[in-house]
Amino acid sequence: MQPADIDTNPALVAKSTQLASGEPALLRPLTRTDAPILGRYFLGLSEATRRVYGPHAFDQETADRICAELDSSQALRLLAILGSGEAEQVIAYFILVFGVLDGDRKRYEKLGIRLDAEGDCTLAPSVADAHQSAGLGSQMMEHLRHLARECGRRRMVLWGGVRQDNPRAVHFYRKFGFVEKGEFMVGEVNNYDMISPL
What we know:
alpha+beta, Aminopeptidase, about 30% helix
């Protein structure tokens, strides 16, 4: 599968699933028309969830910009959706960048690890507060890891690492084979760089 095909054929990466509650959900890529529901998801997140997420702000302006500039050949933005039509609700939002970010690449170089823009990918996940620790993140991760392999990726790194003071996230990543390769400070917060083979 080629990432460039995702925007023209979203069904390539869509998957029906079931939550632990028994509710049906759909994992599908973000589309240009999703700005309203993505914005509602962003604005509905708690301050605690926002605090541990680094790639971008969680507001309507950011949702509008992301949807307007959508290019899945560079980054797949996968949603978990409850409901359909006017009742659609985003309950998780994972970003998979096909390649590596400059800041991450430089940190890994200092550790003696060369990241490969053609073979590596970068992950940034978030799950709505009401659905955390209920298995949804694991379903999203399993699906995204499969898609990354289908797109020819061999390793996955965390976008900006993970905060040491977020043990639930560190445990989650370890469950999927991520290992700590180094530590770095952002302000007064220690962070781990973690990488996983696919």
